[in-house]
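Q: Given only this backbone (149 positions), what sequence would you predict?
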């Protein structure tokens, strides 16, 4: 009989989790977000399974120094709605840089993750901070540069 090759599935508990530190200073928002989403999802590992959480944790610092290209600096808007009539709120990206710069990166990465239960679980592995300091030094995050690829 022919020997069949079986696909090996790894359990979520057996996935080796690492912590990475990314400096967002002078990086383009969309390129940064797509590379971070790949790491969080686990697509950079040979054990990647589409329906499982095999990714790593990512800590992003200097979120207030990220760049946007083109006319996004003036035209990009974040729209939310309370659910009540007339409850639409529009915030420009300049206001968001002043009020909550972490949201800009979180929103960009969240848009590149699956829109299901797995995506909600994965976005919790992203930690974004506006300044240079972060409270995750105990996890010893490994600094990586996303500029090369």
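A: Predicted residues:
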């Amino acid at each position: 009989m022919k020997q069949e090759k079986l696909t090996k599935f790894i359990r979520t508990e057996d996935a080796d989790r690492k912590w990475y530190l990314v400096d967002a200073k002078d990086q383009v928002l969309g390129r940064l977000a797509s590379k971070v989403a790949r790491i969080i999802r686990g697509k950079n590992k040979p054990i990647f399974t589409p329906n499982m959480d095999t990714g790593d944790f990512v800590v992003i610092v200097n979120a207030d120094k990220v760049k946007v290209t083109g006319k996004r600096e003036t035209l990009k808007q974040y729209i939310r709605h309370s659910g009540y009539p007339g409850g639409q709120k529009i915030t420009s990206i300049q206001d968001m840089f002043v009020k909550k710069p972490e949201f800009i990166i979180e929103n960009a990465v969240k848009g590149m993750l699956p829109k299901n239960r797995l995506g909600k679980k994965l976005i919790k592995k992203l930690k974004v901070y506006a300044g240079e300091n972060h409270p995750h030094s105990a996890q010893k995050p490994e600094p990586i540069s996303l500029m090369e690829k």
